Amino acid sequence: MSSPSSDMKAFRELVHQCKSLVVLTGAGVSAESGVPTFRGAGGYWRRWNATDLATPGAFHENPSLVWEFYHYRREVMASKHPNPAHIAIAECEKRFKRSGRKVTVITQNIDGLHKRAGSNRILELHGNLFKTRCLKCGDVAVNVDSPICEALQGRGAPDPGTESALIPEEQLPRCKVGGCGGLVRPHVVWFGECLESSILEEVDQELKNCDLCMLVGTSSVVYPAAGFAPALAARGVPVAEFNMETTWATNQLGFHFHGPAGENVPEALKP
Ligand code: BJW
Ligand code: ZN
């Protein structure tokens, strides 16, 4: 396929004409808010790669360590704010709604920043950092407690030399449903786990109906999300990638805008 265009004027023309815009986002959309991405220099916590701790095996082996990691990220995230990319996407949704058009955010991020920016139509593919799921009764609950439990207070420091806390399981976050008290885990999707089927059905619907797509700040290596934009492009839907780098998907897409999402996304969505 020929290399993608970087003609912003032509892309903005498509935005003005489109009826249903899907914005697929990854960690790069939050990078300018100060949230580390997964792959690359920022993706380490202590001596672990973040993706090594995002597995059911890691939690099974050492729930204390994995909870320290997530506790750290919850505390960091609570101090971060949406950046101009999140805000431009949320404002575009409101503007589109007034003329009977729609914007849907399909995000791999668990940081909740799209919602905090004011987006309403959001599908969170990989869950949410501020939700827990009970391993005993399955209850899913919103949880913004800080710290999430007493034993994690002051724990989770990211420096490579930090000693692990080795918190006994009964002192880790527990289910608040009356009488349950089971161990809870972060309500996020780890490698090898299935994405929620109801969300995948909604995603299918949105992808089927959309007539324009923006792919923002993702390395496009993690499936199933990595397949969404190339599948749209193969169907003839125009897709624009916004990234600091090219990815394996770039050459299958119609547009590529090189550079920080916080600059290029607002430019692309200017009223
Ligand atoms: C900027 C920027 C700026 C920076 N502006 N840009 C098919 C083929 C092969 C394997 C599989 C397959 N189907 C499924 C699999 C297995 C696996 C998988 O995909 N493995 C691959 C690694 C090969 N997938 C799964 O296991 C998924 N489950 C599943 O499919 O179940 C069924 C099944 C299972 C097994 C086999 C087959 C089927 C589940 C995936 C769950 C991913 N979970 C994580 C952790 C979530 C919780 C947490 O956060 O702790 O999700 S992993 C991590 O990666 C996280 C992210 O959402 C995800 C994607 O990362 P993302 O967002 O792309 O971030 P980065 O860091 O990679 O990239 C950032 C980008 O931003 C870069 O490109 C930068 O350049 C850019 N950037 N600053 C613009 N300012
Ligand atoms: Zn429970």
From TrEMBL:
It is found in: Mitochondrion. Its main location: mitochondrion. Residues 1-271 form the Deacetylase sirtuin-type domain. One of its GO terms (molecular function) is NAD+ binding. It catalyses: N(6)-succinyl-L-lysyl-[protein] + NAD(+) + H2O = 2''-O-succinyl-ADP-D-ribose + nicotinamide + L-lysyl-[protein]; N(6)-glutaryl-L-lysyl-[protein] + NAD(+) + H2O = 2''-O-glutaryl-ADP-D-ribose + nicotinamide + L-lysyl-[protein]; N(6)-malonyl-L-lysyl-[protein] + NAD(+) + H2O = 2''-O-malonyl-ADP-D-ribose + nicotinamide + L-lysyl-[protein]. GO terms for cellular component: mitochondrion; nucleus. It comes from the Eukaryota. Its EC number is 2.3.1.-. Binds 1 zinc ion per subunit. CDD domains: SIRT5_Af1_CobB. Its cofactor is Zn(2+). It is an enzyme of class 2 (transferase). Substrate binds at residues 70, 73. NAD-dependent lysine demalonylase, desuccinylase and deglutarylase that specifically removes malonyl, succinyl and glutaryl groups on target proteins. Has weak NAD-dependent protein deacetylase activity; however this activity may not be physiologically relevant in vivo. In contrast to class I sirtuins, class III sirtuins have only weak deacetylase activity. Difference in substrate specificity is probably due to a larger hydrophobic pocket with 2 residues (Tyr-70 and Arg-73) that bind to malonylated and succinylated substrates and define the specificity. This is NAD-dependent protein deacylase. It comes from Bugula neritina.
